[in-house]
Write a sequence for this structure.
């Protein structure tokens, strides 16, 4: 399925223009998370008219007995509540330093934790999504009950419109069709 593209605001364009070379030069997961990933997710929140919440570094220990504990780099919830993570959680984003493949298992674990979290809160969703990214390129994942789908494409930050299109499509409250990965 082809995702639409959403033009980033002038704020996003300017926000990415300055820190992109810096994030590439500093070359750490922390700098890319703070300078690139957070900017894109803030733009998503603005595009969703603040009807989604965004969390970074929040403890997301859903079931330590199953190994579903620890922090998630970024969580997006379909709720305007910013004080605490509330269901439904739709997207978990794992920031990886140049190693998307190495982050896939961690991304899947975050999605399984989100699915369990949603179920426990009585917020059943058809799918939970994830992304693994070093900030410059993004790989998306989709979890339906019992099955994880990994998009074979990577989306580069030089086409941030495509990344925003996918993210907005995922959180669109009025979207009757789930994205196919």
């Amino acid at each position: 399925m082809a995702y639409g593209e959403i033009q980033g605001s002038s704020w996003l364009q300017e926000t990415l223009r300055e820190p992109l070379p810096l994030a590439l030069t500093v070359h750490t997961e922390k700098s890319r998370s703070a300078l690139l990933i957070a900017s894109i997710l803030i733009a998503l929140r603005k595009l969703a008219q603040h009807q989604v919440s965004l969390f970074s570094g929040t403890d997301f220990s859903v079931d330590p007995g199953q190994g579903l504990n620890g922090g998630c780099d970024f969580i997006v919830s379909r709720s305007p509540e910013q004080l605490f993570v509330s269901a439904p959680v739709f997207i978990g984003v794992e920031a990886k330093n140049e190693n998307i493949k190495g982050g896939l298992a961690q991304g899947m674990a975050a999605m399984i934790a989100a699915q369990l979290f949603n179920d426990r809160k009585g917020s059943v969703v058809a799918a939970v999504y994830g992304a693994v990214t070093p900030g410059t390129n993004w790989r998306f994942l989709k979890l339906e009950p019992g099955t994880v789908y990994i998009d074979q494409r990577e989306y580069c930050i030089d086409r941030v419109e495509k990344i925003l299109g996918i993210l907005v499509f995922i959180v669109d409250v009025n979207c009757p069709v789930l994205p196919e990965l």
